[in-house]
Amino acid sequence: MATAVAPEPSPAPTIHDREQTQGLQNIREFLKVRCGYDVFPLSFRLIVLDHDLLIKKSLNIMIQNSIVSAPLWDSQKSCFAGTLTATDYINVIQYYYQFPDEMYKLDQFRLSSLPDIEKAIGASPIETISVNPLMPLFDAIKQMLSTRARRIPLIDVDDETGKGWVVSVITQYRILKFIAVNNEHNTVLFKKTVRELNMGTYKNIATTRMDNSVLDVIHQMVARNISCVPVVDDKGRVLNVFEAVDIIPCIKGGMYEELNGTIGDALCKRPDDSPGIYTCSEHDRLQSIFDTIRKSRVHRLIVVDDDNKLKGVISLSDILTWVLLSEEA
Ligand code: AMP
Question: Which residue ranges does the record assign to the CBS domain (predicted)?
Answer without folding.
Answer: 123-187, 199-258, 273-329
